[in-house]
Amino acid sequence: MNTILITGASSGYGRETARHFHAAGWNVIATMRKPEPGILPASERMRLLPLEVTDAASIAACIAAAGPIDVLVNNAGVGLGGAFEIAPLSDIRRIFETNTFGVMAMTQAVLPGMRERGSGTVVNVTSSATLGAFPFSAPYTASKMAIEGFSQALVPELAPFGLRVKLVEPGLGVSTRFAQNSAFDFAAQVPPAYAAHATAVFSARPEVTTSESDVAEGVWRAVHDTTGQLRFPAGADALALWERRSW
Q1: Catalytic residue among 21, 26, 134, 140
Q2: Can you tell me the distance from the alpha carbon of 203 to that of 70, in angstroms, rounded to the nearest whole number?
Q3: Domains with residue ranges and CATH for the chain
């Protein structure tokens, strides 16, 4: 029976992905900073493990406790919105620590075991911000674009060992706790000089069109793909951007 490890599984996309794979008969290791009983189905095939993806000791302990992993889903992420001109570099570094270096660290941690077994899949959850230009999201977009390039380069590097790398790109119209954790404080994050432009940008953004199940199904498609496809847009808004973009 296959085993999948999902980061950031306490809510949103990660939790729904854990439910999806568990319902399909997989062994699921759902990781989060502080595991809480009851947030996922109680089952012998559902394990909750503590994990902080920015902490090397936490990663090592999690991987040791998890045992062999067939699929890693790098889902944990944080957002940052606002005018880049005033974005504190400390906040930008924090975004990269989770969204970029956390993904790299987790991937690096699982590769030796996957390589030795001759099989394994890494799924990196990025964003449709990588498919189009979204003002007032420059640091967040940069952190996700870095993972797009990272993933693309790993595909041929790992292919000789039977390992696969996939990208799932959720739309920006989200309905999860991620949106709350990334709440946009207009007054604090937009200087007066940008106010009119920012108002126009945010009023033109679409209603929520990407659901948690859209992303869980995107991860499922990515894991089971046999065509060599790298990118899997998830959600109506991501699909619309995908159709306009030529790779």
Answers
A1: 140
A2: 43
A3: 3-244 (3.40.50.720)
pTM, rounded to two decimals: 0.91
- For the chain, the 3-state helix, strand and coil shares in percent, each to the nearest 5, are 50, 15, 35
- The pLDDT tens digits for 18-44 are 999 999 999 999 999 999 889 999 999
Q: How far apart are the first and last CA of the chain?
A: 35
Determine contact, residues 88/96, Cβ cutoff 8 Å.
no
**Cα 187 to Cα 2, 85, 112, 156, 174, distances in angstroms:** 48, 14, 47, 45, 22
Beta strands in the chain (DSSP E): 3-6, 27-32, 46-50, 71-74, 120-125, 163-170, 231-234
Q: Is 194 a catalytic residue?
A: no
What Rg value do the Cα atoms of the chain yield, rounded? 18
